[in-house]
Automatic annotation (TrEMBL):
Domain of life: Bacteria
EC number, UniProt record: 2.5.1.3
Enzyme type, top EC level: transferase
Cofactor note: Binds 1 Mg(2+) ion per subunit.
Cofactor(s) demanded: Mg(2+)
The protein's name: Thiamine-phosphate synthase
Length: 221
């Protein structure tokens, strides 16, 4: 059973994190409530990814946060990461699952309801749905879909979704109202003066949304 919590998903950016580094950013953010950390560094080769990933794994030891590696399956396996996240233009999900094994988490980026509907839940554990907004942290991203488009992607998906794409604290409620299990952020934590405080603010919004939804459901019952 692959257990994980998509609530607050931090995607590390080496440029934005340059001030205190990706490892310290992740460490502080997890203290603040981040539940999953993705190592994404498009400029790094596999060797450097492995070095950073091992340092991240050590920093997150003893916490419940999961470490996910973006794209590089060789690095993910060498690090002993909790999982791998791939895009539509990377290897097939069948190949990725075969490489990482049955126990690791596999995430897949989708940009349309059709791609979401085509996800095989026997292979993929969650989708990254969006992008909700345009974002400079991923210059080659697909056309932003907004919250309505996000909701359509999530409704079509057979697996849980984390919303991504320019999301900040003020967007948490809308993203989760669209059906997202959590929010994935980059600049909302990376590069902030205090990543722990930034993460706490996001985590608080998630708790508030879930509390209100629970109360509404109770009263309706």
């Amino acid at each position: 059973m692959r257990c994980f919590d998509l609530s607050l998903y931090l995607v590390l950016d080496p440029g934005l994190c340059a001030g205190i580094g990706m490892v310290e950013t992740a460490r502080a953010a997890v203290v603040g409530g981040v539940t999953m950390v993705q190592l994404r560094d498009k400029e790094a080769d596999t060797k450097r990814l492995i070095e950073t990933g091992r340092a991240l794994k050590e920093a997150l030891a003893g916490t419940n946060a999961k470490l996910i590696v973006n794209d590089d399956v060789t690095a993910a396996v060498a690090i002993g990461a909790d999982g791998l996240h791939i895009g539509q233009d990377d290897m097939t999900v069948a190949e990725a699952r075969a490489r990482i094994g049955a126990d690791a988490i596999l995430g897949l980026s989708v940009e349309t309801p059709e791609l979401a509907a085509a996800v095989d839940p026997a292979l993929v554990d969650y989708i990254g749905a969006g992008p909700v907004f345009a974002t400079p942290t991923k210059p080659n991203h697909k056309q932003p879909v907004g919250f309505d488009g996000l909701a359509r992607q999530i409704a079509a998906s057979p697996v849980p979704a984390v919303a991504i794409g320019g999301l900040k604290v003020i967007h948490v409620a809308q993203a989760m109202a669209a059906g997202a299990r959590g929010v994935a952020v980059v600049s909302a934590i990376c590069g902030q003066p205090d990543p722990e405080t930034a993460a706490r603010a996001l985590a608080a919004e998630i708790r508030i949304f879930r509390s209100r939804r629970s109360e509404n459901g109770f009263h309706k019952g």
